[in-house]
Amino acid sequence: AATWFTTLLLTRLGLGVGEAPTFPVSYRAVRDWAPYKERGRAVGAIQAGSLLGPAVAAPAVAWIIQATSWRWSFVATGAVGLLWVAVWSALVSTPERTRWIPEPERQRILTERHAGEAPPVHDGVGYRGLLRSPSMWGLAISQGCAVYSLYLYLSWLPDYLETARHLSIMKSGVFTAVPFYAGTLLIVLTNWVGDAALNPVTLRSGKRRLVVVACLLLTAMGMLIPFVQSLALVVLLTILPISFSSTATATNAALASDLLRSPADSGRAFAFMVLGGNVFGLLAPIVTGYIVQMTGSFTSAFVLAGVLALFGAAVSLLLTQHSLGEETPTLAGATADLRLPRGAGGQPPALRGFDKPARTDCAAPAAARGLGKGRGSDRASVGRAARRRAGTCRGGADLHAPPGRSRRRGDQDRAHRRRRFRPRLRHVRARPVELLRLAQPRQAQPDPGREASPGA
Q: In angstroms, rounded to a whole number, what is the distance separating the alpha carbons of residues 302 and 387?
C-alpha cells in the first residue's frame, strides 16, 4: 500500500510540475501575439479551453471508469496531452518567427500589441521591482481567491452531487459538465465585452479591474448552493462560480498585461500571479476535505469560497491601480500635467485665457512693448506677459470681460484677480516661443531718414 501511495504521490507531483508553466507561458504568448484590443478575448479563449476540457472529460471519464477501470481514464487523458504537445510545438512561436501568418497581420500585431506606446529599453525591474507595486500583490491575491473557488468545484463538485444530492456516477458526471459548458461561452462573451468597452487610455489606467471585481462578486453567489433544494437550481447556481471564477482569472491576466510597462517583466509578473492562484488552489481541496470531515456537510466549504471571492473583489478594486515594470510604480494612467484648481470652462484660473488670441490694444507682443530693453528683468517680463495673457494687462481694461462691461468695473475685476492669482503666477511657465523671443538680442532698426540723406 505504501508503494502504491508513493507512486501516486510522485505522479501527482509530476503532473503539477508539468502543468505549472502552462498559464504563465500562455499569458506571455498573449502579450506577444494579441493587439491590445484583443487581449481579453485571447486570454478568455485560453481559459475557455481549461473549462471545455472538464466539460468534455467529466462524462467521458465517468463512462471509461464505468466501462473499464479508473486506471484507463488516466491513460486516455494522458494520451490526449501528448498529442497536443506535438501540435503546439509545430505551430506556436513568436510573431517575428512564425511563417504561416500573412504579413499585414504580422505588422498589425507588432504595431498594436503595446497599445501604441514604445516599450522601455531597459531589461525589466525583476521580481524585486515588481513586488514594490501594490498591483502585483493585488493581482496575485485576487487570482488566488478566484482559483480557490474554481479548484473547489473542479475537485469536489462530482462528490458533492453524489453524496449530498444522491446522484449516480454517470449522472454526476453529466451535471458536472453543464456548468463547464456554460462557462466556456460566458468567459469568451465577458472578455469580448470588456475589450469592446476599453480604449487605450482606460486600458492603460487599469479599468479592466472593474470586470474582475464584477466576476468575483458573481463567483460569491456560490455560497447559496447548500441552501437550495431544487437540483435544477443547484446546477444553475454552480454555473455562476465556475464560469465567473474562471473569467476572473482570465481577465486578471489581461489586466496584468494592461498594467505592464516592460515586456521583459511579463513572464515574471504572470508567474507570480499564477503562483498566488496555485497556492490558494492547492489549499482548496485540502481545506474542503477537512471541513467536510469535521462538519459532515459542504455548507461551510461553499460559504468560505464565497467569502474569499468577496475579499478578492475588494483587493482587486483597491490595489490594482499602479503600473508594473517601472522602477517607481505610479498610478496607472496618471499624467504629469499641472494640477491647479479648475474654474469655469475647465481651465485653471491663473491660466484662463492663454489659448485666446492676443488683443492689439493691450496685449501687444513683448518686443513691441519694450520688455527686452532693460525695463525689468526677464522674470518680470515673463510675469507681465503671463498677466497680460490672463486678461490683467497693466493700464488696460479687462480683455476677456463680457461685452458692455464698463472700464471701471473691468479695472476692479482686474485688481481683484491680480490680488487673488498673483501667488499662482509663480508656477506659470512661459511658453517656449516667448522665452526664445526674450533671449534674442534686439537688432538696431535702420533709420529711413539717414538712408535717404547719407551726407547729413
A: 67
Integer Cα distance of 303 and 292 in angstroms: 12
DSSP code for 122? S
Burial class (CB in 10 A: 0-12, 13-18, 19+), 70: exposed
| Helix extents (H) in 113-133 | 126-131
Grid cell for residue 299: 455548507
Rounded to the nearest angstrom, the gap between the alpha carbon of residue 243 and the centroid of all alpha carbons in its chain is 20
Name the CA dihedral angle for 143, 145, 148, 154, rounded to a multiple of 10 degrees: -70
Q: Which three cell numbers stand for residue 281?
A: 488552489
The CA distance from 44 to 250, in Å, is: 6
Report residue 260: phi and psi, to 5°: -70, 135
In whole angstroms, what separates CA 251 from the centre of its chain?
9
pLDDT tens digits for 216-251? 999 999 999 999 988 889 988 999 999 899 899 989
**Are 153 and 221 in contact, with CB atoms under 8 Å apart?**
no
Entry pTM: 0.63
Classified as helix, coil or strand, 12 is: helix
